[in-house]
Amino acid sequence: MLRGQSCATIRAMQKTKKTQANSASVTADTTKPRRARTTSKPISTDTAKPRPTVMRPAAPKPRSVKTPAKGFSAKDEAAKPRRIGTKMSRLLASNVAPVKPAIKPVAQAPRHEGSSAALTHWLLYCRPGFEQDCTQEAVGQARSQRPVLAEQPGIIPDSGYAIVAINEQTLSYRELIFARQLIRLHHIIEELPERDRLTPVLAAINELTGTFSEIWLEVPDTNDGKTLSAFTRRFGPLLETALRAQGRLLPVEVEAGRSDAAEAKKLPRLHIFFPDKSSALIGTSDPYNSASSLMGIVRQSMPAEAPSRSTLKLAEAIEVFLDKSEQTRLLRSGMTAVDLGAAPGGWSWQMVRRGIRVTAVDNGPMKGVLEKHPLVEHLKQDGFKFQPKKAVDWLLCDMVDKPAKVAELIGDWFVNGWCRHSIFNLKLPMKQRVTALDAALNGIRSRLDIEGISYKLIAKQLYHDREEITVFLSKTKNR
Ligand SMILES: C[S@@+](CC[C@H](N)C(=O)[O-])C[C@H]1O[C@@H](n2cnc3c(N)ncnc32)[C@H](O)[C@@H]1O
């Protein structure tokens, strides 16, 4: 039987993180165990003791969240994300029954009409440094669906992930800008023994029901996370073999594209996320409501001919926002594009390589192959004042300016019918990022709504985005 023990999960994870951060040895050797632990041993499949703690994530001890006496008036306060740093353990582990749900705080709180008071824990991956935005957005989305019995999100600054506990309701991955991945969290395992990580991980998986389409072993997108990759490469095959032997993973033949492959793809994916070597978070994702790439990252390699690394942003945006058939249909040779803030030409290059003619607007110089490209007309003009003589298929915009100003410009282009599709960047302000983005994107939405223009809008902070997000906006058929 799996044993729970109180409150130590994330604290332990964080202690490890601190130790790693303070240690000069955390640079290259990913396989060496830490000195504080026992001797260096490879990962083995033997079932050694001591038994680690497998924990069902429970709701936090609401230390700074007042339990509302009546009704549900404290929900907004409770839902506000905070940087609680090393106190994250409170968030997850107050009631550590082995595998049974532990929902103590909500059970104590007054129930909102129709609420079962059960909480769902979500594990979200994000760009390190954006944990606060990621959780604020997720809780905001949950709140927009119905009143939220949310707990303070668990945030470890710069960790590349966050955990939110909200009502038993589903978040929509597509609507989240900062979340790279959306995973329903089922178990937290702490103090994984160095000599046998497999047994406890398998034990936790055995508490879940059903079959999984695939298993992904993941780590945070941080320097510490990178040092774990060698470990996951060795551990992954061991775990996969064990799960296949138990019939918990799809048989290989189905994966290889036999007749029932489409059905099989609908099964949940299993995620084992290692914040560090001694803890694991076990969750599942819905293939229709999550990113379809490992760690939620769509990597791109730098094309030698492209004039700037910015080209990777647009390449990733095309992969993330358009499925294969949309890429073929919407990015055809002979189409036209305007690229505002085009220099030195990384985005324009993505267009011309597909045979699309580009008007590149920028006072700066186009470089490399784009300097004198037959498909490129370079205009040294102000992108905010430029107006096309004829409507184009695509508007690209990578000018660095306030999100509100860029959003207004994009709205103008769509309302005036100057383009059909657009990919543009919104640079993030230092503070109130979620609020500023909401205002900018809602500004565009309401203008298009007023004009009766049907559209599809998806916004994401992509892997190649830094202090910015990328937006895809496309006119769909008229109402
Ligand atoms: C981030 S860079 C664009 C990089 C480009 N997308 C690429 O792939 O190479 C931003 C560009 O916007 C241009 N820019 C900024 N404000 C502008 C404006 N008002 N009109 C035209 N270009 C502008 C800058 O000159 C700069 O070249």
What's this, in brief?
By secondary structure, the protein is α/β, with parallel strands linked by helices.
Number of helices: 15
Please name the CATH architecture of the largest domain: 2-Layer Sandwich
Poorly predicted residue ranges:
1-51, 58-116
The rounded distance between the terminal residues' Cα atoms is 59 Å
- Report the biggest beta sheet as strand number plus sense, adding barrel if it closes: 8 strands, mixed
Q: How many discrete structural domains?
A: 2
Could you name the CATH topology of the largest domain? VC0802-like
Radius of gyration: 24 Å
Report helical residue fraction: 25-40%
Small molecules bound: S-adenosylmethionine
Total number of β-strand segments?
15
**Which strand-content bin applies to the residues?**
15-25%
What is the overall silhouette?
Answer: globular
Overall description:
By secondary structure, the chain is α/β, with parallel strands linked by helices. It has 2 domains: 9-20 and 31-296, VC0802-like; 311-475, Rossmann fold. The protein contains 15 helices and 15 strands. The chain has helices at residues 9-22, 75-79, 88-92, 104-108, 131-145, 198-206, 223-226, 229-245, 252-255, 261-265, 311-321, 324-330, 346-352, 403-415, 433-451; strands at residues 53-55, 119-125, 154-155, 161-167, 181-190, 215-218, 269-276, 279-285, 336-340, 357-361, 376-379, 392-397, 419-427, 455-460, 468-475. The strands form 2 sheets. Strands 1, 2, 3, 4, 5, 6, 7 and 8 form an 8-stranded mixed sheet that branches. A 7-stranded mixed sheet has the order 11-10-9-12-13-15-14, with helices on both faces. A hairpin with a 7-residue loop joins strand 14 (455-460) and strand 15 (468-475). Helix 11 crosses helix 13. The longest helix is centred in the last third of the chain and has 19 residues, at 433-451. It is globular, with a radius of gyration of 24 Å. Residues 1-51 and 58-116 have low confidence and may be disordered. The structure holds S-adenosylmethionine. S-adenosylmethionine binds at residues 308, 310-311, 341-347, 361-364, 382-384, 398-400.
